[in-house]
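Quick one, tokens below:
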């Protein structure tokens, strides 16, 4: 992989940002499946977009990719077509609800781990074109710690861990934070507690994870917010319309909007020169060595 890494390094170092926009990369993950991670990712992206930010969602959940299904659209192309050089990065970007742009992953993310030198250079060249194109690139990863999920968590600037108040979900969320921390990578984690009955339950759940992380890992895990356990969410899934669009005045939608406002307030404070697609590719480079 040495030659591949060298080619990627040279490309990244010679590419600059487009204009003045900084593209921030976020990974959304969870310790276990079934916690509403993809639904959160989609509605969080739409909420950011409603505030005037340009957002691109990468569906990186291999085998269980469903961002397009949640929006009721069909994916024509995916990352697979890019890696095979059948399509460019611009040709695999598709539009869903409210013209939200997304890229379907499919088996492409698994192929990413086995790129030849030529394929890696092409991938880097294509992805670098997104630098400055959007404000946020959000990777919706698979649940748990697969090799693919782990690489995107480690390469992104920050990771949002979605969990629920269920004990198994809490345990698995902490496990994913512990695993990444044990590898010596400085990843900025944030918690989202989904399907809470009230703010008190959400705070209690977040405190359990935060206190244990502080005591045993010596790291601070801030809570981004809570999302109410609202019956309209399942109704929206059945209708294949994001709940923030189908039910704009629901408690779940209000939760997402409050959470997004909290994120933006913190985003303005923590923004650093190390953000962007260039930073992401540099970190990915180290992981591919």
């Amino acid at each position: 992989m040495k030659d591949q890494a060298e080619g990627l390094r040279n490309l990244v170092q010679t590419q600059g940002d487009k204009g003045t926009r900084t593209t921030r990369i976020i990974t959304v993950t969870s310790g276990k499946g079934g916690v509403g991670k993809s639904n959160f990712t989609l509605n969080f992206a739409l909420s950011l977009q409603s505030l005037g930010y340009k957002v691109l969602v990468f569906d990186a959940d291999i085998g269980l990719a469903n961002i397009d299904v949640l929006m009721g659209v069909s994916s024509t192309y995916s990352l697979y077509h890019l890696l095979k050089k059948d399509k460019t990065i611009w040709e695999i970007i598709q539009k869903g609800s409210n013209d939200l742009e997304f890229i379907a992953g499919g088996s492409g993310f698994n192929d990413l781990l086995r790129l030849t030198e030529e394929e890696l250079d092409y991938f880097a060249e294509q992805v670098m074109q997104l630098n400055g194109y959007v404000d946020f690139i959000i990777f919706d990863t698979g649940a748990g710690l697969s090799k693919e999920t782990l690489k995107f968590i480690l390469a992104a600037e920050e990771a949002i861990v979605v969990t629920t108040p269920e004990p198994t979900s809490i345990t698995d969320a902490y496990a994913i934070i512990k695993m990444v921390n044990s590898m010596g990578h400085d990843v900025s984690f944030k918690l989202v507690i989904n399907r809470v009955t009230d703010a008190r339950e959400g705070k209690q759940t977040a405190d359990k994870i935060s206190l244990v992380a502080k005591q045993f890992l010596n790291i601070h895990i801030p809570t981004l917010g809570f999302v109410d356990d609202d019956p309209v969410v399942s109704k929206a899934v059945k209708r294949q319309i994001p709940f923030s669009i189908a039910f704009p005045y629901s408690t779940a939608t209000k939760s997402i909007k409050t959470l997004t406002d909290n994120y933006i307030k913190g985003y303005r404070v923590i923004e650093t020169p190390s953000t962007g697609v260039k930073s992401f590719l540099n970190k990915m480079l180290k992981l591919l060595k």
